[in-house]
Amino acid sequence: MLDRYRYWHLDAIVADLDTRRHEFGIAIENWHHDRNIGTVVRTANAFLAREVVIVGRRRWNRRGAMVTDRYQHVVHVETIAQLRAHAGDVPIVGVDNLPGSVPIETFALPRKVILLFGQESVGLTDEARAACAAVCSIAQYGSTRSINAGVAAGIAMHAWIRAHAALP
């Protein structure tokens, strides 16, 4: 599988991936130039997410994406209201360790969903929380207040995969 696309053109690779993309999307707030976005894009490509939506600043550090942003649909919207409009009838589920959040380990993630992540230091904004059908947390057992946003996105994507994807 590693060399499957070795001699393919970029547009042919994207077209092939589009035939197999999963029904979840990822959104991440980018108000303070979050460096985790590249990692989120790379992980979204690994799990074959439908798209990654960046909310806020258009500029982001592509280094962490390791060129996978060429193969992943990356959309930009300015506001949470635009994200809500972009989502249409697809529910948005936030991922943040806020009071009242439900454990992602026991939450039934919808098949069609946009998983929304906040910035590394501040988490989801109040506006983002209000746009969510639910907010899930990821169980933590150590002394840190939170885990890296890129890591949290990977855990949440894997939770969706475990619930909905067929094994390759």
Automatic annotation (TrEMBL):
Transmembrane helix recorded as keyword: no
Q: Which residues form a coiled coil?
A: none
Protein keywords: Methyltransferase, Transferase
Query: What positions does the domain tRNA/rRNA methyltransferase SpoU type occupy?
Result: 26-158
Q: Name one Pfam family in it.
A: SpoU_methylase
* PANTHER family membership: RRNA METHYLTRANSFERASE 3, RRNA METHYLTRANSFERASE 3, MITOCHONDRIAL
Can you name this protein? tRNA/rRNA methyltransferase SpoU type domain-containing protein
> What is the species listed in this Swiss-Prot or TrEMBL entry?
Jatrophihabitans cynanchi
